[in-house]
Amino acid sequence: MRILFVHPNYRSGGAEIAGTWPPAWVAYLTGHLRTAGFDDVHFIDAMTNDISDEDLAHQIEALHPDVVGVTAITPSIYRAEEVLRIASEVAPHAVRVMGGVHATFMFKQVLSEAPWIDVIVRGEGEEICTELMLAIEDGRWPKERHKIKGLAFRDGDEIVATAAASTVKDLSAIKPDWTVLEWEKYIYIPLGTRVAIPNLARGCPFTCSFCSQWKFWRDYRVRNPKDVVDEIEDLVDNHGVGFFILADEEPTINKKKFVAFCQELIDRGLPKRVKWGINTRVTDIYRDKDLLKFYRKAGLVHVSLGTEAAAQMKLDIFNKETKVDENKTAIRLLREADILVEAQFIVGLDNETPETLEETYQMAWDWQPDLANWSMYTPWPFTPLFQELKDQVEIYDFSKYNFVTPIMKPAAMERGELLDGVMNNYRRFYSKKALFHYPWRGTGFRRRYLLGCLYAFLKAGFQRTFYDLGKAGYWGPQTKNSVDFHFDETRQLAEAQLEDWEASADKAARAAERRAAVKAQMKDRSAQRTQNFKMPNGAEVRACGGSDQQMEDV
C-alpha cells in the first residue's frame, strides 16, 4: 500500500524568518509505520519547496497513492484542506486523512467546511495512524471505522467521533525515520547549518490558558534521554545537523531527565559538533541557576523565555504563575552562563494601548535579553482563553491566526496602530543592538550567532516577508492607517462546531454547579454537627486556641 504525506504550503512571516524548519511530524509517523511493516511511504514538503497547487496535483497524480495524509495547525488548516481537495480530484480512490492539533479539537468545523476529507486522526498520531493504515490495508476500511479509537469522520449527514485513543505509553517505541526528509533544504540561518526539531517529552503539566499543547498531549511523559540522544547522534552523523531545537513546550520540567539528557550529550562528545536551543519557563531558570553552566557545556546556547507580558495583570490572565520581576533576574542568570536568551512578549489583548506597548519595549531594553520577540495574541479556538474572550473575537479567518496578524482589536487601538507599535519596538530594539551590542560584545560563537540572527531579521525585512508586511502593505508609520490584513470575512464558525461548544459549556457549567452545591451541603452539615455536639462533661466545644469560631471547610 502506498502512503503519501504532504506538508501544506503555508507561510506567515513568523518562525520562517530564522530558516526552513523540518516537519518532524512526518518522520515520527513514518518511523512508526515502517515498524508496522509499511515500506512504501512518500513525502512532499510543499512548504519548503514552495510547490504550487498545480504542481502538487501533478506530483500526487504521478504517485498513485492509496492514502494521502496531511497535518495542520490552525493557520495552515485551509491549505491542508486544499491539499486533500486536490487529492480528491487526481487520486479519487485514495483515502484522505488529516491530523494535527486544529483538526483534533475542531473536527466538526473541518468536516463541515471540507466534506471531501475521509477521516481525521484526533490526538497523538503514531498509534492511531498505524491502526488506521492497517484497517485500510486489510480491507476493513470504511466498514470497521467505528471500531478504531481516536477518529472523526462523516457518516451520511452525521459527524462521528469515536472514543479517544490512549496516549502513547511506550515512548521507547517511538523511532522516527529521518531519512524521509531532504536535509540539505533545512537550514538554520543564524548559524548557516542544518537544523532538526527532535522531541524529549510530550505534554505539559501546566495549563496556560492561551496554550493548546497540554490539551493535545493530555498527559506529561518524558522519553528515555539515551533514546533521544541516539536520535540526535543519528541526525548529526548521518544527516549533517549542526543545530537542533527541542520541540517540547518546556523540556526542563523533569529536572532529573533533563540533566541526564545533557550528561549523555557530554559523554558522547556531541556538544563539539552540535548546538541547541529550548523554550522554557522563568521558574525553571531560577530552580536550575547552579546548573546553567553545565547546560551550556552540554551545548545549550539559546533559551527562549516565555516572559509573555509586561504587566502583571496580563500574566494573571494567562495563568503563567510567574512574577514580572523574576524575568529580569532569569535573563541575567542565563547571560552570566553564556547562554543567549530570547524574551517572548504577547501583545494585542483587549487592554493593549500605546502606553503598554511602550512599557514592553522599556522592559525589554531594561532586562537586556539578547533577542526579543513581540507576538500578537492569537486566540486558538480550542483554548480556555478563547472561550472567555469569544464575544470579542471578530475574525474567524483561521489562516491569519499566526502570531503575526492582530486577530484581536484592542479597545483603544486600531489593528494597524497595533502593528505599527510592534514594528516600532522591533526597530528600536534591534537598531540599538546592531549598533552598540552585537558587533562589540562577546567573542567567537556568541558574536557570530547574534550577527547571524541580525542577518536573518534584515533578510526577512528586505524581502518584506517579516510579519507578512509585504502582503499587508505596511511600509512604516505613515501607512498604519491603510494596512490591509486581507481577512476573509466569509469564514465563520460551523453550526456543528458551535453546537459542540455550547454543549461542552453547558456540561462544564452544570458540573461547576454540582460541585458548588455539594460543597455548600457539606459545609451546612459540618456546622450542624458542630452545633449539636457537646463534650462529655457538657462543656461548650472550642476551636484550637480556645476560640468559638471554627475554620471553614476547604
Record the SSE blueprint:
Layout: E1 3-7, H1 24-35, E2 41-45, H2 53-63, E3 67-71, H3 77-90, E4 95-99, H4 101-105, H5 107-113, E5 119-121, H6 125-137, E6 151-155, E7 158-161, E8 187-188, E9 193-196, E10 201-202, H7 213-217, E11 221-222, H8 225-239, E12 241-245, H9 255-267, E13 275-280, H10 282-287, H11 292-297, E14 300-308, H12 312-318, H13 324-336, E15 340-347, H14 354-367, E16 371-376, H15 384-389, H16 415-436, H17 445-462, H18 469-472, H19 495-532
Parallel strand pairs: 1-2, 1-3, 3-4, 4-5, 9-12, 12-13, 13-14, 14-15, 15-16
Antiparallel strand pairs: 5-6, 6-7, 8-9, 10-11
Helix pairs in contact: 1-6, 2-3, 5-19, 8-9, 14-16
Strand content: 5-15%
Strand tally, please?
16
- Can you tell me the residue ranges where pLDDT is under 50 for at least 5 consecutive residues? 540-554
Class by alpha and beta content: alpha/beta
User: How many individual helices?
Assistant: 19
Between the first and last Cα atoms, what is the distance in angstroms? Answer: 59 Å
The major beta sheet can be summarized as: 7 strands, mixed
Rounded to an integer in angstroms, the radius of gyration calculated over CA atoms is 26 Å
- Quote the average pLDDT: 88
- Helical amount: 40-55%
Shape category: globular
What is the topology, as strand order, of the major beta sheet?
A: 2-1-3-4-5-6-7
